[in-house]
Amino acid sequence: MEPHLTVITLAVDDLERAMRFYRDGLGMPTEGIVGEEFENGAVVFFRLQGGLTLALWPRTSLALDTGLKIAAPTGPAVSLGHNVSSRQAVDEIMNRAEAAGAQVIKAPRPTFYGGYAGCFQDPDGHLWEIVFNPGIPG
Length: 138
What we know:
By secondary structure, this protein is α/β, with parallel strands linked by helices. The chain has three helices and eight strands.
């Protein structure tokens, strides 16, 4: 297996709400909901840099597709990181996310490694870290 990812799929409770959060709130471009003509096929795709795709798929559809039962979230299992080029960019994105309905988990602050970071959860509880790390290009 080559060590790279091509799609990250987030299970969501309300596809329209999740699409609005990422599209309208965070400004990620998308063609909107596609696949509605297929049973359990409605999905939203966001093309990210580097060929990565972020997909939003209803939690029930993902459960049906995998055969797994829907379970209540138990806490942070994964954090999605978005590295930016400045402390100001961290503040701007965190403010934008909060205005769009995100819950701020950790307000932006200096990190132990000389960077600056904050965390929020999207309306479905997915954890994002917005970070300025001077050792990683933004």
